[in-house]
Amino acid sequence: MSARTRIKLCGLTRAEDVAAAVMLGADAIGLVFYPPSPRHVSPQQAAELLARLPALVSAVGLFVNPALSEVQACLQAAPISILQFHGDETPQQCAAIAEQVQRPFLRALRIRPTTTTSDLLEFDSAYR
């Protein structure tokens, strides 16, 4: 199997930034649906940003400890193809939401100075 690095540019909030990401060859763009973030976008803003996204560029929705209804509302408004969880969600919570909305998911790992190799392997095993 051949491994290929894919590039996702996240936290985009302006149409010109989405266009630039596409022009530069990004494989995916990420939109933040976490209200406290300065890069937060509403589902309606996301729909506008994604309206001209080419078919082969993935749209990733970043969520932090979301309720299923929050994810559903975003997906009803905007064509998000992949979920990214970035809070304290368990593997079971991520899988349950992803299954309910029929989307694949990614899980971000916060790397801290105290993170060990064992922590990385445990995380990989839990979310694989």
Q: Quick one: biggest sheet?
A: 5 strands, parallel
Got a strand count? 5
Determine the structural class based on helices, strands and strand pairing: alpha/beta
Strand order of the biggest β-sheet:
1-2-3-4-5
H/E element string? EHEHEHEHEH
Put simply, the count of helices is 5
Task: Explain what you see.
Helices cover 38% and strands 16% of the residues. By secondary structure, it is α/β, with parallel strands linked by helices. Helix 2 runs parallel beside helix 3 (68-77). It is globular. The two termini are 17 Å apart.
Draw up the topology in text.
Layout: E1 8-10, H1 15-23, E2 28-32, H2 43-50, E3 58-63, H3 68-77, E4 82-85, H4 91-101, E5 105-107, H5 117-127
Parallel strand pairs: 1-2, 2-3, 3-4, 4-5
Helix pairs in contact: 2-3
Essential attributes:
5 helices, alpha/beta, 5 strands, 128 residues, five-stranded parallel β-sheet
Q: What's a quick, concise take on this entry?
A:
The chain has 128 residues and is α/β, with parallel strands linked by helices.
